[in-house]
Amino acid sequence: RNKLSLSQILSQVGFQHRRDYVTTLGKPVASRYADGLFPQYKRAQDGSVYNLTAKKELILHFVDCLIGAIELYQQRMEWLTSESRQIFGVIQEQCIVIVLDFGTAAPTEFDLCRDALSMVLVEQVVQISRFNLIRAAQDLMKWQQKCTPVSEYTVKSAVTWLWKLDHMTAVSHASSAEALLEAMGDEAVEAVYYFVVGDVPVDTKQLLLEKISDGSCPVNTVSFNAREDETIIFLKELSHLASGSSSWNNRKLMECYCSGLAVWKSSSVTCSLASFSYGWWKLIYSTWLVDCFILGISHVVRISRQWKWIR
Prior knowledge:
Elements: H1 6-12, E1 17-22, E2 27-33, E3 40-42, E4 49-51, H2 56-80, H3 85-88, E5 95-101, H4 107-123, E6 130-135, E7 141-142, E8 148-149, H5 152-163, H6 175-184, E9 191-197, H7 202-212, E10 219-224, H8 229-241, E11 253-256, E12 262-264, H9 276-304
Parallel strand pairs: 5-6, 5-9, 9-10, 10-11
Antiparallel strand pairs: 1-2, 3-4, 6-7, 6-8, 11-12
Helix pairs in contact: 2-9, 4-5, 6-7
């Protein structure tokens, strides 16, 4: 009976057999099985080539580390896309003024706005140094004359002032620009947050573009429950024009609906990932990568049970 050689047997089960033929010697000097099965490492010092394998325990350790990193990423994304950060993103400046433009909000919508703003004050403003609130109205309304140091007392006072505001059905088209100019007049202010409810009237849009384009500090626009896409486009343009001269200024445009969904609209935010849709997509993608990685190494684990470092 004919006997099969080792190379014939291995070739039948998927292991390639390659001989290195040296012309000067006229014969093969080495043979390798499973060529290409493992990643290789070549030492620069002497040119030695190593097939890289690992024990199952080592690979599982790396899997655990990778899964742990993904879990931390998930927690971070959940934090970034929850509660007040859905509306304002992450407030990074230490001295801000929030300009409130309630427009023609209905009474129910007015209460929703105050709920959202109260959450921002309690969760985020309490973490910074100084702040102030200004309401755009026929007669400008300021919580304080200048930005006030943050403390538990001042935050509670601001929330109380917010809930004592009366619901108004009509606002002058010039009141929004006046409120923003007043907020930007304080030299200590690092950024103004322009909180807009509903859509912006055409007359107000033109006036804002004329008055705010040469502002001294960036304006971060926050749109609450806008009905028209033109409003979002305009607020993004306004935020871009009022970005200030410093290259590190963050310009944000958030679109918030009563359902609580926030959508990041500006590509110039460098640190605050407040986009639910963007963050959720990255989370799904990263989880998919982990699944693919685990699936791939599971094959290597099965093989590595029988292999060690091979030179």
